[in-house]
Design goal:
By secondary structure, this protein is an alpha/beta fold. The protein has 16 helices and 28 strands. Helix content is 30%, strand content 23%. Mean pLDDT is 91; it is low at 1-18 and 413-419.
């Protein structure tokens, strides 16, 4: 438990006023001077608030400690808390229904309509709240490492914690770039400490996260969870990259071989091993979560990483563990009040404990985070708790489109109360909560790029083998790493394959270092009737989930999924 802590010691007030504070006011006031007209027109009362634009990390630490109750961890990271909301609020996400974007948006439960008038009400409510704050933080940065396709993002918020978070997650401009930043392409008004009016038309609660593509603005009310800003930027890039630039945005990690320079994209939902498997000592990390596959190569959208901290250890995830130092933010992490050592096993606040850190904190990160080379391999990761999918399958282009649209993994018993058997999760394009356009549009672009550049695609199951959850066992990480290494070396591409029925997958007959019975799940199941029952059950689930997209895909893609007699 976090015990109430004493007011932290700060520099004596007289020294701070006469030295540091005077410098802060002068420095950041002059930086933002040419933008005063913009902020005045937006409704900010410049005579009442102090704007701090791209404040240095040390000053954001000071403000968060002084004003928000943050503390410094034993490793130098800032520990802060997001309040009541410790995760995203997908049911409160809205997109404004307006003439410039309405025909492109995939409307439904993910993208819920909001009228323009309600957006204007909430935008004014956010700015009114920000006007009541003594300090207003502004961070100007970029989304996208490739200058040809990046956008300029401005974040306006009232918490130093939020400013530092976006300092880490966006690409940080040089002083010269900041001086010539100009008008932003996208603005986030984060007034998350202040609630939305739930009686306003279209509001379902006191939380509202909304995007207006005509105004290119985002408004946040009623949630202080910093991840809303990160995923808001991704949603905008998920819209702009295909629509404005003709490029493919992806929820994926990516790395590049040190020797051959070959690029691999990893798709996968939570718990499938996307972050773990893309961290490879023989390869450089391009990024761990959001990328764009462009006409000339691959680039990271972000300037940092947002890693889960639950049960984090130096042994299991050394790169992430060692990245948690000065400049990083630990979010909702419990700590020892005497030593300030984080307790990553304590989930009394939330299981969704996180750390945000600049990508430069990863030793083998490729800086700048982009490569002018097309991918050689795509790895689609799934964690199958039914224990029936092979640990590796080579996909045809049609199968790649099918599994990309399906986006399958499974929740396992024990993760939530009342879960007694595996629960399938189908998240289209491996990014359903952030999808903006129809999934078929992303799938079509993926298929075109794969065909044009002759990219191999692999379905890798990091889940159970020899039985479903409870009777079988999780595929050992050493075998999965061996499979990924064989993908990168070209060994698997040259191997011999056999057909795996029902799902009609091509699976290798052998791979040195991986047991034969592991490669073909049926061989690992002692009870063959139970195996056939589980694979049929999963096949039916696939068919039901894919029915949503059947009318929008070609017959050959429809037929690429599991077939039942």
């Amino acid at each position: 438990m976090v015990l109430p802590h004493h007011t932290p010691y700060v520099t004596p007030q007289i020294l701070h006023k006469n030295y540091a504070q005077a410098h802060d006011t002068e420095s950041f006031g002059s930086l933002i001077g040419k933008d005063l007209e913009y902020f005045s027109q937006a409704g900010f009362e410049m005579d009442k608030i102090q704007l701090k634009r791209n404040a240095p990390v040390a000053q954001l630490y000071e403000d968060a400690i002084r004003n928000e109750g943050a503390i410094i961890s034993s490793s130098g990271a800032l520990i802060n808390f997001s309040g009541k909301k410790t995760g995203r609020s997908p049911k409160d996400k809205r997109i404004v229904y307006e003439e410039t974007s309405k025909d492109n948006i995939w409307w439904g439960s993910v993208n819920i309509k909001m009228d323009e008038h309600t957006f204007e009400i909430n935008r004014e409510r956010a700015i009114d709240y920000l006007n009541t704050r003594e300090n207003v933080y502004v961070f100007d940065g970029y989304a996208g490492w490739d200058p040809r396709y990046r956008i300029k993002v401005r974040v306006i918020c009232a918490r130093a914690y939020h400013a530092l978070f976006m300092h880490n997650m966006l690409i940080r401009p040089t002083p010269e770039q900041l001086a010539d930043f100009g008008e932003p392409d996208f603005i986030i008004y984060n007034a998350g400490q202040f609630p939305a009016n739930r009686f306003t038309k279209g509001m379902s609660s006191t939380t509202s996260v909304e995007i207006n593509f005509k105004r290119m603005e985002m408004v946040i009310l009623g949630t202080e969870y910093a991840g809303e800003m990160k995923k808001g930027v991704f949603s905008v890039m998920h819209y702009l990259q295909p629509i404005r630039f003709g490029q493919l945005s992806l929820h994926s990690s990516a790395n590049v071989g040190i020797e051959k320079g070959d690029v691999t994209l990893f798709f996968g939902l939570s718990g499938t091993g996307k972050t773990t498997l893309s961290a490879d000592p023989n390869r450089l990390l391009i990024g761990d979560d959001e990328h764009v596959w462009s006409d000339t190569g691959v680039f990271n959208i972000e300037g940092g990483c947002y890693a889960k901290c639950i049960n984090l250890s130096a042994e299991k995830e050394p790169d992430i563990f060692n990245a948690i130092k000065f400049g990083s933010i630990l979010e909702n992490v419990v700590y020892n009040p005497a030593t300030r050592v984080p307790d990553y096993e304590d989930i009394s606040i939330t299981e969704n404990t996180r750390c945000a850190y600049p990508i430069e904190h990863i030793p083998n990160a490729k800086i700048p985070c982009m490569v002018d080379r097309q991918p050689s391999n795509i790895i689609m990761l799934t964690c199958d708790a039914f224990g029936v999918l092979p640990p590796v399958s080579r996909l045809t282009p049609e199968q790649a489109s099918y599994h990309f649209l399906a986006g399958y993994t499974s929740k396992t018993p024990g993760t939530e109360d009342g879960v007694l058997e595996p629960i399938p999760t189908f998240s289209t394009c491996y990014s359903a909560p952030f999808i903006v356009l129809h999934p078929g549009r992303y799938a079509e672009m993926l298929a075109e790029r794969m065909a044009k550049h002759n990219v191999d695609c692999w379905l890798i199951n990091t889940g159970w083998t020899g039985g479903k959850f409870g009777t079988g066992k999780r595929c050992a990480l050493k075998y999965t790493r061996r499979i990924v290494d064989a993908v990168h070396s070209g060994e698997l591409a040259k191997g011999e394959y056999e057909n795996f029925g029902t799902f009609n997958l091509s699976i290798p007959t052998s791979l040195e270092g991986v047991p034969r019975e592991l490669l073909n799940p049926e061989l690992a199941w002692p009870d063959k009737d139970a195996f056939r029952k589980e694979i049929r059950k999963l096949a039916v689930m696939f068919q039901r989930a894919f029915a949503l997209y059947e009318k929008d895909v070609e017959p050959k893609v429809r037929m690429a999924g599991p077939q039942l007699e």
